[in-house]
Amino acid sequence: MSGQSTLLEIRDLHVGIDGNEILRGIDLKMGPGEIHAIMGRNGSGKTTTANVIMGHPDFDVEKGDVILEGESLLELEAWERARKGVFLSFQYPQAVPGLQVGNFLRKSVASIRGEDEAKGSVFREELTSAMESLDIPRSFMSRYVNDGFSGGEKKRFEILQLMLLKPRLAVLDETDSGLDIDGIRTVSEGVNAAIRGTDSAALIITHYSRILEHVQPDMVHVLLDGRIVASGGPELATKLEERGYEWLKEE
Amino acid sequence: MAEGGVIRVSGDSEAREAVGEYKAGWHDPENSTIRFDFGLSEEVVRQISELKEEPEWMTDIRVKAFKHFSERPMPTWGNMSMLEEIDFENICYYLKSSDSTERDWEDVPEDIRNTFERLGIPEAEQKWLSGVTAQYESEAVYHSIREDLEKQGVIFLDMDSGLKEYPEIVKKWFCSVVPYSDNKFSALNTAVWSGGSFIYVPEGVHVEMPVQAYFRINAKNMGQFERTLIIADKGSSIHYVEGCTAPSYSTDSLHSAVVELVALPGSHIRYSTIQNWSSNVYNLVTKRGIAHEDAKIEWVDGNIGSKLTMKYPAVILKGEGSHAEVISVAYSGEGQHQDAGAKIHHLASNTTSKILSKSISKNGGRGTYRGMVTVSPKADNCKLNVVCDALILDEGSRSDTYPTMEVANPSARCEHEASVSKVSDDQLFYLMSRGHSEEESLAMIVNGFFEPFTRELPMEYAVELNQLMALEMEGSIG
Question: Where in chain A are the domains?
Fold first, then answer.
């Protein structure tokens, strides 16, 4: 399923914050329908990669490019990238007290997919079925965005947004952290439903390989000190789980 | 006749179109039938009363109030330097822009009608209003009340008509809640008041839908001194809604209203306000209610515009088992100071009160919460709860909190919480990653912060407030 076209290309990406270089030249290519994983220890640059793709203003891109469907994203603000089809499932989703979930979802769908998609019964049906598949109760709609949510609720809410916003590229930052096994399974099913069989792509950023048992990646990349030091098939994740990250440092 | 007291028929005033920042800042050319020259004297006060053909007792109160106003010094709190800038000699104290109070929309002069149509009143009325009284400059020009209300015996008039048609009721309650000697501005209002609403709800009558009034200042240097009196008889209930917008002018305007609420035993009054004065208006308002046994008074108070607002809706819990709530929001932008809060006095046992105050300051704006809750020695088992939250949007803005509690009865249960927060970059980034521009994201955060207030409003007011805040957030970034 690979090869013919490129959805996302990261080219020799160097990124710093407050003068410290965090990413030291990353290259990555993903085609439509592909799921890739980036694995690495804490501090290896995983979350920075996710934030830079989405356009967090705190990071300085010193060199290189991030290209979505032939167009560089670097000059675009986060909301413009979102409208071009980039989505980030946050490791730590932010609470917005007073902003109701239902209202927020409708507004987000309207701004990304267009006003027409957020109206009427079609949207409501889509919303209801996505909520059912993620075991999210109806009462969720009148709560405030991430306000007082448990860790698991926050992650399920991120995936609910993924399913409704239908991005071209979904970046999932540590979506499995803080979830129990059932939670990982539910969330993984959501990711599969949103990506598999579509021409969208997902980049799963994770510390552990557990989520990858449920969302089979086409490629696994290992990030170490701001560089991708190894790439391979799903078996690479298994190897990391067994042997840790140390052996890569030696190679 | 004093020098300033000339009655002038005019239509000649220059109407400088104020363009720009303030969205509701359009205005019609002044088309006044009668206007007084600037400045205030006992003669002017007597003339206003005479022109309105008022009973002598009202003239007397006006004159006494004027004397008190002249002698009373400025408040020594709030924002003294802004208060000192008020030039009382440069304010016109009475202006009548239409000869009579209209009840049929079609009879209202066209330019005035245009103003109200832009405010959407007739449409709103069709949908759900149970009555409309709209104050244009000093005189209510439009007033309607739906038949079912009239059948229930509810009186809903502008204050001038109320005085003419129901002098005994007005005499009994006028100044009974807010004496003219209460403060300098209640004295000023009592001396020169004009317009406002007069409402009487008979025993046991529940007014199901909110009644509303719009107030606008539309003349340069025009002071607006409306006076509102609402009496809810035993076991009755009413929700009164007041929305204010004003055009933008280069000289300062003064709005100094007095609102008196009387909640007789077992009744319920809710008074909701959204004021959006343009940023040159002084908004110095005295609002107070008395709650008798088992009665409930709620003030829902939103202060968005103005140069300086000093407003502390108050409730005197006089009867046992009565309840008070004050929910307020204040937004202060560049050059603005919102000094707002609440006052509640627990005079009787088993009374409860709740204050929720939320303020936002931006672009150097200043928000102050000033509150006072007292419990008298004889009032047993009172419960009071005060929450004030401030959200500061940038470095130069300011928020202060002055909560005062004087509790003279040890059985009282008091709760107080205060918080100050800032909008974080991570919060903005999260919302922006969902396709919302920085301004839209900020408006979502701000409207969320105001949500505990907004949800208390009738829907179209809530929508209007959200839109106003979204407009205020435009261009606020960077």
Answer: 8-90+165-250
